[in-house]
Specification:
Structural class: alpha+beta
Helix content: 25-40%
Strand order of the largest sheet: 4-3-9-7-8
Strand content: 15-25%
Number of helices: 14
Shape: globular
Distance between the termini: 27 Å
Largest sheet: 5 strands, parallel
Number of domains: 2
Amino acid sequence: MMIASRYILACLACSVAFGTQSRAATDTATHDFGCKFLEQKAEPQSIIGQDGFVFRVHTDLRLHHTFTDQTVTNLAHLSKWLKQNGTTLIYAPVPTKSQAMPDYLPQTAKLYGYDDRISQVVYENIIGRLKAAGVVTVDLMTALRAAEPGKEPFFKADFHWSPEGARLAAKAISETIKAQPDYQQVTKTSFQTVARPKTPLFSKMRDNLQRYCKESLPAINSVTYQTQETAGASQGATLDLFGPQQADPIALVGTSFSDAQYYNFAGFIRQYSSLRLTNYSVTGGNQFGSMLSYLTSNDFKTSRPKFIVWENPIYNNLGQFGAAPWVELWASARQECVSTAANLEDGGKEAFLDNLSRRSLQEDLAILVDSDDTSIRSVNVKVDYASGRSRNITIERNSRIRSTGRFYMPVRPIAHEQISQLTIDFSKPSDGVPIVQLCSY
């Protein structure tokens, strides 16, 4: 890691001298579409490169992507607990458009300090550190850079990948899945992908940028694909009418890159891996939304998949919210919990104190509050201390992610003095039977 860091610093010193060696050197194919103030006023602030490809200033031209050693450790910890319970985590960081398509950057990218070689090393450094920590990680930058001319991996006036980019990424992910020891033990299924006519797609980014341009920006219009299971496709499968429902071998969690059917990302993974897949991805759920909603769900609790593919753009900061989301993921993955003495009150409040006031709470514990009601999106925990002080902690799921009614609160922030009582107040009275447990992580 030290060597990579020194190399990055060295490249920073020489970025002006070398720059990005590509077709961007001449800008012969650059067309501005009569745009003004894209770099100053548009949302997102953008520049136009080769063949009408638009790059975001603050995201695509950034050389630094926050991926600290602590984040690497957090992912490795999650991977460890998932693996010990039979699931392999496949982490798939999506590169920026500039990392995947450096040849399409305009000369003005250098004015922002962008250097392709530095950007490439930054991505490779993150991949290398994750792999060294034991996290199965897929290098999507290399996969997307291999796109054939005329089959670009990203749309021109949007930041999402095209169906071709999704296909290349899915192929790389599937090759990684096939290389895992557990792959041979999983029932294979045959899939067929068929092309559909070109279909326009609304892009909020393109719509925002168009306000600053006289001419029409490139439309989001692409051949789309649909992947379906072929008749009699499963090989070696047996049907148990009375047994528990088995999860598909792959659970896909991620962002809009995975969620939108337009890209057929999930379908391409099915085809290339020959495995069934359930897509739990969420658009607008931030870097943790889909993973939190899935790992805290009954689907995951009752039947775990062999593989979890976690797609996340490289620019998403997994340290943004501190330890709280990680504690929920770790505790859900480990699932080693013990019940507490609880007293259910009217109105959906649950006050409990026996176990907590008479034992020393370990800092590596989390309090699981399971409302037994998937319509409940938030819980407030009031902590009363023996000293007479109190504090309130609220955990809330935003409206874009699937609600599970299950919340994990780390003990560490509240364990600094003797607790006399915890009172739990749901956003609405529970229609189920809430439980409270202490879980290790």
